[in-house]
Amino acid sequence: MSKVGWPVARARCRAVSFAAMVVAGFILVVAAPHVWAQPGAGLNGINTANPDSVLQETLNGIEGESLTLVDAVRSALEGGSTLARRAAAQLVAARGAHMRESGHFDPEIFLDGTTADEDRQRTSPFELNDVVSTRTTYGTGGLRVLLPIGTQLEASMDALRTETNSTFATVNPSYDAEGRLSLRQPLLRGFGPGTSSEATATGREEKAAQARYDDVVLQVQTLVEQVYWDLHASARDLAVQRLIRDQAVALATQAELRARSGLVGPNDVATAHVFLAEQEQSLLDREEELDRISDTLASLIGRRPKNLPRFRAVDDPPSSFPIEPEETAVEHALAQNLAIRASEQDLSAALAREKGAAWNKYPRLDLLGSIGGTGLAGTPQDVTFIPGAEPVPVSGKMDEAFSDVFQRDFPTWSAGVSLSVPIFLREGRGEHQRLRGETERARQDLEEARRTLTEDVRTAHRALVRAARRFEVASQGVAASREQVRIGVLQYNSGRTTAFELVRLGADLATAQQRYSQALVRTAKAAAALRFLTSGAYPASTSTGGNTRP
Question: 13 versus 209: which is more confidently predicted?
């Protein structure tokens, strides 16, 4: 080699070595096995390290509005979640339906009043007036109530004032009063549940709607938390992908330098550029995935980031959870799950309606009765066409007539029965059959909900139990992949391997990092699912993660 060529070759070698150091540095950063983990005691006893500063810097460089989990949940529950608002509307409707049906048993005050004038031509030779004029003022009022057993009670008072110019009127003006307490008691159709079944059923449905609303609140909290952890993992994947993209750039630069030095052929350069193009595409995919998850979170909480393209999760997932026995978790869920309670209330409502229909399929047979009294007051009037006739022994005004009624000076009473028999009784029997089918459907819905809940609890519990091992394996996979890449870089620099093999190792490293991100948040999502399925009965985390980012 000439004296001029030797310095040039040596300079090229130094450039290649520097590029190799850059590649190795990026690879070691990307392959850090415990980034984004909680310092100190980690997932169920696994020791973790502090986040790598370079990856942390890349994460901090991702543009977005910082959002804590607490703020996200609060925004969703304060009106942002359409799911919660719809459940609240259903609860209001259920309360209104129960109030309407219960209102049938509220006491009712009634009052009616009329005034009428009537002129008639005289028809009697003893009538002194050619036109007989009569003015009446009638009023009735009282209190009626329907009891839950079907009893109809009514206390009423009728009052009539009559004023006329008729010669035959012995009392003018006259005041008539009549008071009575009447009863109608169904013995078959309409008895007991036949009357109160709908009020009972809507009461159960109100309790079901309340349980569903509480369940939806927990569901919204769980959905927000799970999407929040997905956002956390997606941001980490994007940061890792950016570093891998930077590694691909450095690899392409190194391949070009080595090709100009004659150390590799054009195939290595082409392979490096293909790897770079793939990583650029993957970077775009990661950005779109992060934006999609951010949009999902925005829909859940009801607001968009302010003047920024996306949200950024600033809290870290909890790293340690108590593990109860699987059967204990299932028992907690079956005893506490609010959706199961709602289904139980639905079954109770169906049973109440079926019980009422069982009475209403019979004919109507009612017992009738009343007691009361009458009263009369007014101004006596002489009967001119009957000489010597004594005046009617009444006096006073309406209060005197009312006094007679209350003292029952002239008592009244009645008793009887009322029977109504529809031919074939198809209406009542058909409704009873329909409601019996609805009851069986509600019973099967409840059983299906219990089986599905048991299956979901067991699945979530097993995911939580295996989370520690999954996290450990994912960490080992990242460490092993990092070591493979480190060795591959050394072999590539020494000419013992090709750029194609280094690209394959880089792809393996990216896959290992994605699995690590999934394992990082999978535990928190499984624990959130268990808390939802047990309606908060499952113990909370012992390590809350929190915001550890600067």
Answer: 209
**Residue 198 CB partners (closer than 8 Å, separation 6+):** 101, 353, 356
Question: What span, in angstroms and rounded, lies between the C-alpha atoms of 550 and 547?
Answer: 8
Query: What mean pLDDT do residues 145-174 have?
Result: 93
pTM of the model: 0.78
Sequence-separated (6 or more) residues with CB below 8 Å from residue 150: 185, 186, 190, 191, 192, 194, 195, 196
Eight-class DSSP state of 538: S
| C-alpha angle 192-195-199 in degrees, rounded to nearest 5 | 110
Side-chain-side CA neighbours of 62 within 13 Å: the count stands at 30
The predicted structure's pLDDT at residue 58? 83
Q: What dotted CATH number matches 5-89+203-345+441-533?
A: 1.20.1600.10
pLDDT of residue 541: 55
85: left (phi over 0), alpha (psi -120 to 50) or beta: alpha
Q: How far is CA 315 from CA 66, 252, 302, in A?
A: 9, 36, 20
Given strand 152-164, what is the order of strands in its sheet? Answer: 108-121, 131-146, 152-164, 171-186, 364-380, 410-420
Q: List all residues 6 or more positions away from 252 whose beta carbon is below 8 Å from its beta carbon.
A: 269, 272, 273, 275, 276
Distance between CA atoms of residues 162 and 401, nearest Å: 13
Alpha-carbon distances, residue 94 vs 220, 357, 425 (angstroms) = 21, 21, 32
User: φ and ψ at 33, to 5 degrees?
Assistant: -80, -15
Written as six digits, the tokens of 391 are 């005046």
Percent of the chain with pLDDT strictly greater than 90: 53
Take residue 457 and report the two structure tokens written for it.
């609890």
Please report which confidence band the pLDDT of residue 207 belongs to, taking 50, 70 and 90 as the band edges: very high
Q: How many CB atoms lie within 10 A of CB 436?
A: 16
What local confidence, expressed as pLDDT, does residue 49 receive? 34
The one-character DSSP state at 77 is: I
- Residue extents of the structural domains in the chain: 5-89+203-345+441-533, 108-202+364-440
DSSP 103: G
3-state secondary structure 29-43: HHCCCCCCCCCEECH
For the record, the structure tokens of 353 come out as 């309606």
Contacts of 16 (CB under 8 A, 6+ apart): 254, 257, 258, 261, 263, 493
Checking phi first, is residue 247 left (phi over 0); if not, alpha (psi -120 to 50) or beta?
alpha
pLDDT of residue 234: 92
In order, the DSSP letters of 243-287 are HHHHHHHHHHHHHHHHHHTTSS-HHHHHHHHHHHHHHHHHHHHHH
> What pLDDT shows up at residue 129?
85
170 vs 183, 376, 385, CA distance in Å?
35, 12, 12
Looking at residue 145, its pLDDT comes to 97
